[in-house]
Design a protein that fits this description.
heterodimer, A: mainly alpha, 77% helix, globular, B: mainly alpha, two-stranded antiparallel sheet, 2 strands, 3% strand
Chain lengths: 485, 127
């Protein structure tokens, strides 16, 4: 593999990102510009940016690795990521755009007239955001290590520094352009290699027997019903609870354009997932030896040079590396923007300077966590983030938009119960504290019981404190659902 | 006391919009406008109910068709025994087949929601 080419690709992506970021800086002046791009972004641009931000290390590297490792089970991840936008479209996209709030904690505080509920929400936004940034930094570490041989920390530090600087300097306005660019870069960086590799399928050496490459056990027939259903629940509901996803909807001019944007997003991310899935299928044919938890995430990076020796393979690899870095950059910068928004408003008073300080802090914390943890499978560690989001923020958002009886105590109780249950499950399954197969499955894929638990807690506590339903709940709900003139 | 003696309001430096989301206006409706406001509120409540019904119906429809498709892909043996471009049909359908379903429901919902809002707007104007 050619190291200079790969390094050139990484540097080009970083330079392009910085240039586009600073182009955006010239026109961002107020706090509103920094946080929500002054709400002037058109659906196509916004959809590119949302998709650019959403396609992370988990789908760029992790999906193909998981297809190689587990077979068709892996396809449920992108299906769930994509269908998560369908639920977001149906239940929260337009109402949240009309709420006038900039962040999830803003929405909860305005809806429930409670600073306490806001603080709990902010805490979960931070936890979910940081958990989600860590796999991105791990992905950068793996990529730099595999393609250049440099020590892994170089990749994660480079990403953290560049994200902190871009976000602190330009905020959301420049991030919109940067992320729209990143979507098209990622689509190209996955699409061109897939097409080139497919054209060369006939010439490369391969395992021949389809029954070995696509065994019955790893196919759709071998799926575990409970695990699949529970995973799907987490992915479907989790998307709307991700902090960096929701904040982008505030940049639409109105509710109807928020819906249009979401439909375009579904098209854009589905296109990418089909390419990424194809890469996984090609990997099963040409790189079955990488089917090991330690190496599976690198299959996308290693496949091209195996199938196309020489310059062609190196060029394709460099393109993939560029796309992978765009994935890490886009997702982590989007997360840092929304986390910095929350930290600066809740702790530091909400000025432009506070936002910049928060941005640097929000890139540093996950970097430290990255050093302290070992990379697990990228797709699975991102899957856990969805479980936490689906068990804490999503139920409260759903009820907040549709049920006038929600109270601050109910929201706080539901978020804490669901979040703690999800975290405990991670500990139990991570340390293997249970043996019974039913219990193992329940803690491995806990969404099937943590989500109903969170919803039930929220509803019951809200009913018990129903005298404290905010007086203006009706008026606020009207505002969420009445179309703009 | 001369009007000129009233001191101007203190100068405020504005660096951006208010810190937190504002809640919709707090004015009391004037008596004359009260009745039409009540009707407006009824229209709005029926809009909210219509949107929720649409969302729930689309969501249930989507989940059922996704589960149905997954069942068929998992259980029909012919899908695993026949190949398309060297890949079993069951694998190919699982990898690519669900996205059109998601998009179809997205388009159906978005159109329906737009129609509900259009109906609400025309009711409000007639008022």
């Amino acid at each position: 593999m050619s190291t200079p080419l790969a390094i050139t690709a990484i540097v080009l992506v970083l330079v392009a990102t910085v240039v586009i970021g600073f182009y955006g800086l010239r026109i961002s002046r107020t706090t509103d510009d920094l946080l929500v791009a002054s709400r002037t972004v058109r659906p196509w641009m916004n959809a590119s940016a949302i998709s650019g931000e959403y396609l992370s290390a988990a789908t760029f590297l992790g999906l193909a690795g998981l297809v190689l490792l587990t077979g068709t089970d892996a396809f449920w991840f992108p299906i769930g990521y994509s269908a998560g936008y369908l639920l977001l479209l149906m239940f929260v996209a337009a109402p949240l755009r009309r709420s006038g709030a900039r962040t999830i904690p803003d929405f909860i505080e305005a809806r429930l007239a409670s600073v306490g509920a806001r603080r709990v929400t902010s805490l979960f936004v931070l936890i979910i955001g940081w958990l989600y940034i860590v796999p991105q930094f791990h992905g950068a570490a793996i990529t730099v290590n595999v393609v250049t041989g440099l020590p892994p920390f170089v990749g994660s530090v480079a990403i953290a520094v560049i994200v902190g600087v871009i976000v602190a300097a330009g905020g959301m306005r420049s991030i919109t352009f940067v992320q729209a660019f990143h979507y098209w870069l990622k689509l190209t960086a996955m699409g061109v290699p897939v097409v080139v590799l497919l054209l060369n399928v006939g010439t490369a050496p391969a395992a021949i027997d389809p029954a070995l490459i696509f065994p019955l056990d790893s196919g759709p027939g071998g799926q575990d019903l409970y695990r699949t259903a529970s995973l799907m629940l987490a992915l479907l509901l989790g998307t709307m609870g991700l902090p960096h996803v929701l904040v982008r909807f505030y940049t639409n001019p109105d509710g109807a354009s928020a819906r249009r944007t979401t439909v375009i997003v579904i098209v854009m991310i589905s296109a990418f997932y089909m390419l990424s899935s194809t890469m996984g299928l090609i990997g099963r044919v040409f790189a079955p030896d990488l089917a090991d938890p330690a190496t599976a995430d690198s299959v996308v990076l290693l496949l091209p040079s195996r199938m196309l020796p020489g310059l062609a393979g190196d060029l394709i690899t460099a393109l993939i590396v560029a796309g992978a870095f765009a994935a890490f950059l886009a997702t982590s910068s989007g997360l840092v923007v929304s986390l910095a928004g929350v930290v600066s408003q809740d702790i530091l008073g909400g000025s432009v300077r506070a936002f910049r300080i928060s941005a640097v802090a929000c890139a540093t914390v996950p970097l430290l966590v990255t050093f302290l943890t070992v990379p697990g499978g990228l797709a699975n560690s991102v899957g856990f983030v969805f479980v936490v989001a689906a068990s804490s923020l999503s139920p409260v958002l759903l009820l907040g938009v549709w049920w006038r009886g929600l109270t601050a105590s109910g929201a706080a109780a539901g978020m804490i119960t669901g979040g703690v249950a999800a975290a405990l499950s991670l500990v139990v399954s991570g340390f293997g504290l249970v043996q019974h197969p039913i219990a193992v499955a329940a803690f491995d894929q806990p969404a099937a019981w943590t989500v109903p638990l969170a919803i039930a807690t929220t509803v019951l506590v809200s009913l018990a404190t129903r005298r404290r339903v905010p007086a203006r709940a009706d008026r606020y709900l009207s505002r969420l659902h009445a179309p703009e003139r | 006391m001369n009007a000129r003696d009233v001191p101007p309001p203190p100068r405020r430096r504005i660096t951006g919009p208010p810190r937190r989301a504002q809640v919709a206006g707090t004015r009391r409706p004037a008596d004359a406008a009260g009745a039409s406001r009540d009707i407006g509120a009824i229209y709005l409540r029926s809009l909210i109910r219509a949107q929720l019904r649409l969302a729930v119906v689309c969501c249930v429809g989507f989940v059922l068709s996704l589960a149905g498709a997954a069942m068929i892909i998992a259980t029909v043996p012919a899908l695993h025994e026949s190949y398309v471009f060297g890949v079993p049909w069951s694998w190919a359908l699982q990898a690519y087949g669900m996205y059109p379903l998601i998009l179809a429901f997205a388009v159906i919902y978005a159109r329906g929601a737009g129609r509900n809002e259009q109906r609400y707007r025309s009711l409000e104007e007639r008022q």
